[in-house]
Every structure is written in structure tokens, then in C-alpha cells.
UniProtKB/TrEMBL annotation:
Gene3D superfamilies: Pseudouridine synthase, RNA-binding S4 domain
Protein name stated in the entry: Pseudouridine synthase
PANTHER family assigned to the protein according to its UniProt record, in alphabetical order: MITOCHONDRIAL RNA PSEUDOURIDINE SYNTHASE, RIBOSOMAL LARGE SUBUNIT PSEUDOURIDINE SYNTHASE D
Function per UniProt: Responsible for synthesis of pseudouridine from uracil.
GO BP field: enzyme-directed rRNA pseudouridine synthesis
Protein family according to the UniProt entry: Belongs to the pseudouridine synthase RluA family.
């Protein structure tokens, strides 16, 4: 059932854009606020406004919030190209291919890791929200590499704690534009949603603590191959931090990469791969480590950038 919320605009929001004011008042993203305005679910003093209108302190807002969509359900079907690196009674570690999300979400209609595991007959933990059972961490849909999923309830609890307490070692390789200066270092910059509300993330004052360690493995004429260790695990963290340094991941057009270089190297997504994952096994306490090779598209691009140098 839709939720009607009515209230006056606080004086402190005088002069704000309507979409920004709604975002601050109700905790929406600006994108969500703009959608509500466009669909006629927002009235200001009884009239339909534009998202760019400036609000007046004391103006009366009527906002109709539609009910949230029902949680999506994983489709149990095998995912081509997703291989199992290791499995026991507690965990399953996969090498996630390109174009596969960790779990179902609103708006995503492609394959998922959870659906692929279920479709191949694997059991996963029933802990967590229905659409993300067993998921203890995520990779972007177009980021490939090592990912662990909990099969038992004790594994889910232990791994969620390990990721929260930052005792999991997550290493990535990224091909970024240009040359890093210094060649190795740490990016300690908070991340939150991009102010534009367009779905991107950005370095934002007051955002969540985000720490990325990098080391240059090889420098080419137009790009550098980095070994990256994440201390935190924010959404798009590596992509955001590299973009903030003006060295976006090759092919990451969403975060400012050069489309000409991407085309020359044949890259159609961000050059970013989760090469290894290590943690205390949730049942035995033994330190376990899993590594993955580059997929074909990233390996080919790396060969090409080397040939250009």
C-alpha cells in the first residue's frame, strides 16, 4: 500500500533543489526523488513541481511513496563460465565470470552467483535476506575473480564477522591509465553516493571510511598494472579511488576512463580482477587462500598494452 507523507519544508532547506530536499528529508537517493517527482507522486502546495524547482521554507509537501517492490528471487540455473575453485561442507569458492551479479536485486535480470550455485546443485546457507542467502561479500557484476559463499550457518556468521573486522585478505589486479606517483601507496578517502544521484559513488567528505593499498607491478607506455589490497569493502571502492587519483581503471567509462584507449585494447568493462582471497576457515580456523587467473578478455588487453609499449 502506498504511503502518503505530508509535511512543511523546513526553513533550513530554503533554496534547495526539490530533488535534493526530498533526498535529505526522506533518505531517498536523488535519483529516487526525481523518479517520484516525474511520476506525479510529489506535490508542492498542491501543484506538480519540476525536480529542479527551488523549495521555499514552509511550503507544504505531499509525497506519495509507492510500496517497495517485492524482493527478487534467485533463478536456479547453471552459469556458463563460473567455476568452483574449492568446496566443502561450509564454504564454496567460485571464480566469478563477467556479467554475473552476486545475488538478485531490483532491476537486475542477468545471471547471479547464487542462482548459478543452486542451479548446479550446490547448497547455500539460509542466513541473510531471502535474495542474498549465503552472500558474505560481493563483486561488481563486471568484476571477475574469487568470491566465497557460505554453505553452513556457522560459516555465514563467521565470515560476515571476518569481513566486518577486516581479517579477510582481498587482493585485486587492476590495469589503470597512466603511471602512479608514488609507485606504491595508500588511498584513505571516504566514499559515499555521488552527489549527482546517478548511481555512481565518489570520494565525499563525511562518507564511509575507505582504505585502498596499491603497488605498481608493471608500468607500460599508457597504463600501469597494479596489485591492490583492500582494507575496507565499499561499493566500487577501487574504481572510485583510482578515478579520484585521475588513474581510472582501463575501460571503466562510468568513472572517467578514456574510451579510445579502451577500444584500442579491446576492453568493454573495467580492467579489474579479484586475483586472490584468503581468510580463516570458519570451521577449522586454518588460514586458507584461493587464487584465480585472468579471464581471456583481460589477458588479451594486457598483451595488447604490452605490445604498445
Amino acid at each position: 500500500m502506498a504511503d502518503l507523507r505530508s509535511l512543511p519544508v523546513p526553513e533550513g532547506l530554503e533554496g534547495e533543489r526539490l530533488d535534493a530536499a526530498l533526498a535529505r528529508l526522506f533518505g531517498f537517493s536523488r535519483t529516487r526523488a526525481a523518479e517520484l517527482i516525474a511520476s506525479g507522486d510529489v506535490l508542492v502546495d498542491g501543484a506538480a513541481p519540476a525536480k529542479s524547482d527551488r523549495v521555499r521554507g514552509g511550503a507544504w509537501l505531499d509525497v506519495t511513496v509507492p510500496p517497495p517492490p517485492s524482493a527478487p528471487v534467485a533463478v536456479a540455473e547453471p552459469v556458463p563460465g563460473m567455476t568452483v575453485l574449492y568446496e566443502d561442507d561450509d564454504i564454496v569458492v567460485v571464480n566469478k565470470p563477467i556479467g554475473v551479479a552476486a545475488h538478485p536485486s531490483v532491476g537486475w535480470t542477468g545471471p547471479t552467483v547464487i542462482g548459478g550455485l543452486l542451479g548446479a546443485g550446490h547448497r547455500v546457507s539460509t542466513s541473510g535476506a531471502a535474495e542474498r542467502q549465503g552472500i558474505v561479500h560481493r563483486l561488481d557484476a563486471n568484476t571477475t575473480g574469487a568470491m566465497v559463499v557460505a554453505k553452513s550457518e556457522r560459516a555465514y556468521t563467521a565470515l560476515k564477522r571476518a569481513f566486518k573486522e577486516r581479517t579477510v585478505e582481498k587482493r585485486y589486479h587492476a590495469l589503470v591509465q597512466g603511471h602512479m606517483d608514488p609507485l606504491r601507496g595508500t588511498v584513505d578517502a571516504p566514499i559515499d553516493r555521488h552527489p549527482s544521484g546517478d548511481g555512481r559513488w565518489a570520494v565525499v567528505a563525511g562518507g564511509k571510511d575507505s582504505v585502498t593499498h596499491y603497488d605498481t607491478l608493471e608500468a607500460f607506455r599508457s597504463a600501469s598494472l597494479l596489485d591492490i589490497r583492500l582494507e575496507t569493502g565499499r561499493t566500487h571502492q577501487i574504481r572510485v579511488h583510482m578515478s579520484a587519483l585521475r588513474h581510472p581503471c582501463v575501460g571503466d567509462l562510468q568513472y572517467g576512463a578514456d574510451p579510445t584507449l579502451a577500444a584500442r585494447l579491446g576492453v568493454t568493462r573495467q580492467w579489474l580482477h579479484a586475483v586472490s582471497l584468503a581468510f580463516d576457515h570458519p570451521a577449522t580456523g586454518e588460514w586458507v587462500s584461493f587464487t584465480t587467473d585472468y579471464p581471456a578478455d583481460l589477458a588479451e588487453a594486457l598483451d595488447r598494452v604490452g605490445d604498445d609499449s
